[in-house]
Each structure stands twice: as C-alpha cells, then as structure tokens.
Amino acid sequence: DGKKKFDKESEKYYSILDKHLNLSAKKKESHLQEADTQIDREHQNFYEASLEYVFKIQEVQEKKKFEFVEPLLSFLQGLFTFYHEGYELAQEFAPYKQQLQFNLQNTRNNFESTRQEVERLMQRMKSANQDYRPPSQWTMEGYLYVQEKRPLGFTWIKHYCTYDKGSKTFTMSVSEMKSSGKMNGLVTGSPEMFKLKSCIRRKTDSIDKRFCFDIEVVERHGIITLQAFSEANRKLWLEAMDGKEPIYTLPAIISKKEEMYLNEAGFNFVRKCIQAVETRGITILGLYRIGGVNSKVQKLMNTTFSPKSPPDIDIDIELWDNKTITSGLKNYLRCLAEPLMTYKLHKDFIVAVKSDDQNYRVEAVHALVHKLPEKNREMLDILIKHLVKVSLHSQQNLMTVSNLGVIFGPTLMRAQEETVAAMMNIKFQNIVVEILIEHYEKIFHTAPDPNIPLPQPQSRSGSRRTRAICLSTGSRKPRGRYTPCLAEPDSDSYSSSPDSTPMGSIESLSSHSSEQNSTTKSASCQPREKSGGIPWIVSPSPSNGQKSLGLWTTSPESSSKEMPKAPPNPDLPPKMCRRLRLDTASSNGYQRPGSVQAKAMYSCKAEHSHELSFPQGAIFSNVYPSVEPGWLKATYEGKTGLVPENYVVFL
C-alpha cells in the first residue's frame, strides 16, 4: 500500500512538474504565481509520501531480524525438548523393550512348530471339497440370492449378507454388476439392515430352487426367501441364525392337545427306530452324529405319521438306511411342542449339574427325573436305555457318553426362550444327558432319596469364579486348544482369547449341529473336521471321539470356565479342578515368569509341540498362567510349554 501511494504521488508530481516547466514566461504574473503555489504543494505531498515509503521499508527490514530468527529459535527449542523427552521415554521403556525382545526370541523359537501346524491346516483346507466357515467379525457372512417380486413373476438378486448373532442383525447389500455382465464383487449403496425374528429351512418340495431357506424380520411383513450356494453353506447359515427345520405334518402328534404329544404312535415310532438301529447299525461309525438326507427323513416322517398309517406301523429296514432312521428319531423328539424334559424343569436340571459336588449332581438329576410326567419319563427311559447300549459299542462307533451328550442335550432339553444365557447353558444340557447315561440303572430303576434338596436358581457367586467345573465323571483326555492365527484384527477373529472368540466362528451349538458332522477321526492326534466346512479353530480331538466344541462359556449363574478333563485312566481318582491366583501382578494382564513351582499329580503325554510331556511327580519351575484357558505355562527339564492346570498342584 505504501508503494502504491508513493507511485501515485510520484506520477502526479512529475506530471504537474512537466506542465509547470512548459508554462510560457509571457503569462500573467498572477497566473505564474498560482502555478508556483500548486507545484510547491504537490512537491510537499510527494516529499511526505516518499518519507513514509522509506520509513515503511526501513521498518520491514528491521523486523526481519527478529520475526525470522524468533520462530527459528522456538522451533529449535521444541526440537531439543522433543529429543530430551524421547531420551527420557526410551529410558522409561527400557524394561518393556527388554521384555519384548525376550518375547520375540521365544516367538522366533516357536516359529517352526507353528508354521508346521498352519501348513497342515492349509493342506487340509486345500484337500477339502466343501464350503467352510472362514474367520470373521460376523457370526456369518457371504453371498446369498434373494427372491424378489417382479410384475411378471420372481427374480433372484445376488446380495452380500452378514449376520450378527448377538444383536440378531441381518444386513443385505446388492452386489454391483459390471457392464459385461460379470460380477466384480463390489457392494454399492448402504446395506439394508433388519432384525431377525426367525429362520426356517425351506422344504425341498415347496420350491423349484435348491438350498433355500426363509427368514422373518421385524421391519418387513412376510418372509424373505434366500438361496445359499450349497447345502453345506445353507447349514452354516441355519446354524448361525438358530434355524429350525420345517414342521413336518404329524397329524397323530401335533394336531392334538399337549397331553397327547407323547401318544401311542410316537412311542411306537421311537421303539421301532431303536429296534432297527440295535438290529443292524449300533456299531456304525458316527451313529447319531452323521445326519441323513433331509428329503428321505421327511418322507419317513410323513409315511409314519400319516393319518392313514396304523399306530403300530413297522419301519422297513430294507427301505430306510440307518442315517435316515436316526435322524427321524431325533427330528421326532425335536418336533415336540415341549421338549421331553419339559420347560418347567429345564432350569432345575441346569442348576443341578452346575454344582461342584459330583454326588449331588447325580442325586439331584435322579430326583428331577422322577418329577417328570409319567409319559415323559417312560419315553426318556426307553431312549436312555438305548443310548447306554450305543455307548457300550464306542470302540466301534466312537459315540462315547460325552459325544451322545453333545448330540442329545439340545434335543431333549431346550429353554422356553432363546436367550444368550440359554445358549451358554447348552454345555450343561449335555452334562445332564451324560449323567442319565452313566447312571441309568440308578436313576430309572431306583427311587430317589427324599432328603436330597432340589436345586434352586441362585445368583452369581463370586467365589465360583476361581474354581472350574469338572463336567463329568467319565474318563477323558485333556482338551488342548490351539488357534493357528497370527493376527487379531479388531479382536473379532484370529484370536485365542475366550473373550474375543466370535460366536459364529466356532462349531454351532444348536440342535442342528448334531446332524452335520462328518466321521470322527479315530486318531487322538488329529483334529476332527466338521462337515460343511474346515474348522479354522483347531482343537485336538480326544481319542474317545469326544466332540470338541472349542467354546469358553459363561452363564448368568456361573462364570466358571471349562477345564481340561482327566486322562483316560480308571485308576486315577477324580481330580478337583482349581485355579490359584499366583499374585496381584497377574491382575493387570502382565505376568512375568517367576519362581513359582508346581508338581505333577498325574503323567501326561503331549499331543502338540507346544505342550509338555511329563511323568507323575515331575517338578515344574517358572509356572504362570497361559492365555489358553485351563492351561499353565511352565518349564520342565529346560523346555518351556503348556501343561493342563488340573494336572498339577502348586508348591
């Protein structure tokens, strides 16, 4: 601005000066005097503008000296402060850095064994010809075809869908179509979000498409029909959504009142199924675990319970294969409007088996069974007697007591309301069935002790958090859990922590899971595979074929965690599982290896490279909690690895 003002005054002054110098000397005196006065005034203005401009230039030049250097000094001060703070921080974090280097060295040492585990998993995934459930932050996700109405009929649109079991949120996003007609997998627009009400498998004869199932949502009226890519993929979706089988037409059962559910036709059907199984198929591998073809099962049910069929109709074992008969038996029990062990006594059974006293569990279940309605108890007697015979052939069929508990727990028992707490109690339903099988003679053929107090639902007890529940008196091997994943994105997947295990990434605990498991591997060192997918959580399967759920459960009544079971040695006394708080340092999530020692009460043979083999009486050093629930980290004979927590006693 000063420069502009100076230039303007200069131009004006020199212009007037030129005019003044060009004045003729012959002009009148008064005119010349006026011109002199004007030139003096303009010269004064020009002079003042010049001084102001020079002053401003001088001011700018002087201010440069401190306005530039001062920020530079401030920057240097901040830089030095930063480096000083960094030095102090480095000193403060030196112990943590040293510990991290120690952990890195251990990780590097364990790399080879971990790589071999992952390589074996990769080879199994490569050799699989079925769909499998990959790790995910969602309970289930993938592409589905959605049936949509059009003016001239229906069309099927491909959507990318996700489902979260905790919130029952189901989302659908239309997949983008390229101009060439090929799908590029991209999702456009915001997804539609719904709250799931129910999910039912679509009957094969009700639609011309395969692999379909129906869902009901709160936001829409009517049903939404979805199509999966394969039968295995549909089973995964049904498991994630707690899908139900379509209600079969059972006129002799469902059309009558509640007290008639267990009628003559039902008893005859169960007896005939059991007779067929015991006659020709009680030693078949995976009996009751491997499900039959749904269409054949439906045909068996419709044939048996047709209004035209007599109540004592025979089951032709030449016409129906073993898997169809066993699936029909399970479906009949599941189709009952009220489970065989009743809604009324459901919570009492659950509370009974949560007791730490093994004898009380048996006595309480004994008393509760005799509180069942007469027909329910009679049907339960018939079924459990059969399951006892099945378990006696476990060397051939691999259906041990614990495996049968996993299959028939959700079939014979279910909560009236499908809550998260009810889902967490599925494990205890399995234990009830185990007790019924193991103590069949006592429970069904003797009267219960009238002095045994019946269980009462109780509030959460803080003292139980430090003690684990021993699930059964049966012989079992310790269950090793190993998750061969090296990352933990958003704590939703690839995690070995029980709190971060996604519900959908483990084998489903719904009643349908009992029908879709492939043949159990007999070798104890090989993980069992799940039909419908390769499990991404590797759980070494016990030698007796026990189904490994790989789930850490917490119910409202108990915060106890599932512990490794006792080794299969009948000479060993039942071990009371206990958890010892080593010191307060473990409460902050950071536990350094210390001088804590422990002694082995039993011998154990390692099933994985990261576990320890040891004899009875072995002394362990540097014992501290592991991130694997139910396991400790310890050093024995110079080697550090995992040992079962309930195999040792602290010194």
TrEMBL record:
PROSITE patterns: PH_DOMAIN, RHOGAP, SH3. GO terms for molecular function: GTPase activator activity. PANTHER family: OLIGOPHRENIN 1 (PTHR12552), RHO GTPASE-ACTIVATING PROTEIN 42 (PTHR12552:SF3). GO terms for biological process: signal transduction. Keywords: Coiled coil, GTPase activation, Phosphoprotein, SH3 domain. Residues 137-246 form the PH domain. May influence blood pressure by functioning as a GTPase-activating protein for RHOA in vascular smooth muscle. Residues 540-558 have a biased composition (Polar residues). Gene3D superfamilies: Arfaptin homology (AH) domain/BAR domain, Pleckstrin-homology domain (PH domain)/Phosphotyrosine-binding domain (PTB), Rho GTPase activation protein, SH3 Domains. Residues 492-522 have a biased composition (Low complexity). This is Rho GTPase-activating protein 42. Residues 593-651 form the SH3 domain. The lineage of its organism: Eukaryota, Metazoa, Chordata, Craniata, Vertebrata. InterPro entries: AH/BAR_dom_sf, BAR_dom, GRAF_fam, PH-like_dom_sf, PH_domain, PH_GRAF, Rho_GTPase_activation_prot, RhoGAP_dom. Residues 447-575 are annotated as: Disordered. The keyword tRNA processing does not apply. GO terms for cellular component: cytoplasm. It comes from Ailuropoda melanoleuca (Giant panda). The keyword Phosphoprotein applies. Residues 97-131 form a coiled coil. It comes from the Eukaryota. Residues 248-444 form the Rho-GAP domain.
